[in-house]
User: What shape does this take?
Amino acid sequence: MKKVMITGALGQIGSELTERLRRDLGVDNVISTDIRTVEGSPVVEDGQFEELDVTNYDNFLDMAKRYEVDTIIHLAALLSATAEKRPAFAWNLNMTGLMNALEVAREIGPETKFFAPSSIAAYGPDAEPDNTPQDTVMHPTTMYGVTKVAGELLENYYHTKYGVDTRSVRFPGLISYKVAPGGGTTDYAVDIYYEALKNKSYTSFIDKGTYMDMMYMDDAIEGIVKLMNADADRLEHRNSFNITAMAFDPEQIAASIRRRIPDFEMNYDVDPVRQGIANSWPNSIDDSDARKEWDFSPNFDLDKMTDEMLEKLSAKFK
Ligand code: AKB
Assistant: This one.
């Protein structure tokens, strides 16, 4: 990875990855792109930034050629809850965008490094729900999940057919304080920290007893960098690696917050759409292949993450 182009760079992952890669590779070696621009965002202001609609292949290719990039990190996509509301739009953005990104990678050089994330959403209700294996049945029942499985297969195809150096992970819910996620099912686990500090209470749209895998953003960013720098000979999986740091339900995150805010109150107003999506996903996934093939090893558990989220957000609110 020497010169990287990032799509969807203003999103939850992209904004933190941009900052990290600018530090690692130098400001001039990271070309961050997004469909929109946001005035005042460090992604836009502190380095190279271009507006790019990933469904426009010609513009995508021109930009990658102009900057002579050797790596594409494709993050532009719609998340699960929004995709469920607008399935046709989600298919077009997630699949045309990914197909274009892979075609651009193939076009600019046979060994272009490539990363696009999959998700725990790639699994469906018939997969083993606990400690879900890396390689098992994948029959998602959401449009987002369908695009993730198709995406994994496409990345595998471009690797075996054209030699594009594709790498990927199945992300769990990602929790961060810098840029809020948008349109995901796991977003409750981010919102809860904001509300705990503002109102000492939170009304969860996900029901108690619903377990999902989660990860603090620092571990997710470290995971991407580690996987992209991993020795290709060690990687047996090219579809997408399971990675996780913790699995909890809303009651457990509330209990973790109460260690710091004892009178924090948790209420429920379950959203049937997002609850249905959550019910179709695993309770917890098995990430032993990622640990074995490229030494994935997260640093944050639930309490450590809670402490950091509350500390960073209170500083932000001051
Ligand atoms: C979502 O909830 O849609 C995402 C995901 C798990 O991929 N956070």
In short: The mean pLDDT is 97. Residues 79-80, 119-121, 144, 171-173, 184-186 surround 2-amino-3-ketobutyric acid (CB under 6 Å).
